[in-house]
C-alpha cells in the first residue's frame, strides 16, 4: 500500500501508487525529475510504397500457366513461390465454384519469398488457416473464399513480394 501525505496547500502527495496523476516528490518541496514524454519516432519510408488495402478478388486469366501469368505481371520479382490466394484445391473440394480463369488470374496470385518465409508462412501458417476454413465451411460461397483470402492477406501480405499490405 502506498504512502499518502497531505502537504500544506499543495494537495495530496502520493508515493508508490503509480497510477495517480500527481507524481511523488523526493524531498519535501523539491520535485523529482520526471522525464518529459518523448515524441513518437517518425517511421522511415520503405523502399516500396505500402499498398492500399484491397479485398482479394478474382480476375480472368487467358492462360492456366499461373507461374507465367505472375511473371508477366511482375517481371522484376524473382526467387518467389507463386501462391494462389484462394488456393487450387477449392476446385476439388467445391467443384464448379471457381473457374480455372479465376483461379489462375493475376489478382489471385501472390509471390512468397523462397526460404524461411515460404516454409513458415506458405507451407505452415497459411495451410493451417485454410484447413480451419474447410472444417468450418462445408458449403462456402465464392465470396466466403475471397473473404478468407483477404483475411490471410491482412495477416501475411506484408511478407509477400510484391507486398499486398
Protein traits:
alpha+beta; 165 residues; two-stranded antiparallel sheet
Tell me the strand order in the biggest sheet. 1-2
Uncertain runs: 10-21
The number of strands is 4
Secondary structure category: alpha+beta
Per the principal axes of the C-alpha atoms, what is the gross shape? globular
User: If you compute it from the alpha carbons, what radius of gyration comes out, rounded to the nearest whole angstrom?
Assistant: 27 Å
Kindly, what is the distance between the CA atoms of the first and last residues, rounded to a whole number of angstroms? 48 Å
Helix content: 25-40%
How much is the average pLDDT?
Answer: 82
Proportion of strand residues: 5-15%
Count of alpha and pi helical runs: 5
Describe the main β-sheet briefly. Answer: 2 strands, antiparallel
Order of helices and strands: EEHEHHEHH
Explain what the structure shows.
It is built from 5 helices and 4 strands, in the order ββαβααβαα. The protein has helices at 66-73, 90-93, 100-103, 116-136, 142-156; strands at 3-7, 11-15, 80-84, 109-113. It is globular and about 65 Å long. The model is unreliable at 10-21 (pLDDT under 50). β1 and β2 form a beta hairpin. It has a domain at 66-159. The protein has 165 residues and is of the alpha+beta class. The chain is 32% helix and 12% strand. The chain has a two-stranded antiparallel ribbon with strand order 1-2.
Can you describe this structure in just a few lines?
It contains 5 helices and 4 strands, in the order ββαβααβαα. It is of the alpha+beta class and 165 residues long.
Amino acid at each position: 500500500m502506498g504512502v499518502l501525505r497531505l502537504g500544506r496547500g499543495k494537495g495530496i502527495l502520493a508515493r508508490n501508487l503509480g497510477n495517480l496523476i500527481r507524481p511523488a516528490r523526493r524531498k519535501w518541496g523539491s520535485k523529482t525529475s520526471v522525464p518529459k514524454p518523448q515524441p513518437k519516432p517518425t517511421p522511415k519510408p520503405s523502399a516500396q510504397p505500402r499498398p492500399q488495402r484491397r479485398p482479394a478478388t478474382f480476375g480472368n486469366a487467358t492462360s492456366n500457366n499461373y507461374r507465367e501469368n505472375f511473371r508477366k505481371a511482375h517481371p522484376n520479382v524473382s526467387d518467389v513461390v507463386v501462391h494462389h490466394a484462394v488456393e487450387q484445391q477449392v476446385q476439388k473440394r467445391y467443384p464448379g465454384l471457381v473457374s480455372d480463369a479465376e483461379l489462375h488470374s493475376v489478382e489471385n496470385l501472390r509471390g512468397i519469398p523462397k526460404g524461411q518465409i515460404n516454409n513458415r508462412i506458405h507451407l505452415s501458417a497459411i495451410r493451417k488457416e485454410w484447413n480451419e476454413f474447410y472444417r468450418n465451411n462445408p458449403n462456402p460461397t465464392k465470396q466466403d473464399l475471397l473473404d478468407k483470402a483477404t483475411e490471410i492477406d491482412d495477416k501475411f501480405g506484408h511478407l509477400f513480394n510484391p507486398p499486398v499490405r
